[in-house]
Amino acid sequence: MSSSFDRYQKRKLISSYFSVVISIALVLFLLGCLGLLVLNAKKIADHFKEQVVMTIYLNDTAKEVEVNQLEKSLAMAEYTKSTHYVSKEEAAESMKAESGEDFMDFIGYNPLQNSIDVHLKADFVTTETLEGITEELSDKKFIEEIRYDNDLVELMNDNVKKITFWVLVISAIFTLIAVLLINSSIRLAVYSKRFIIKTMQMVGATKSFIRRPFVFKSVQLGIIGSIVAMIGMAIVLYYLNQTFPELELAKNPVLLTGLFVGIFALGILITWVSTFIATQRFLNLKTDALYY
Question: What was the pLDDT predicted at 227?
Answer without folding.
Answer: 92
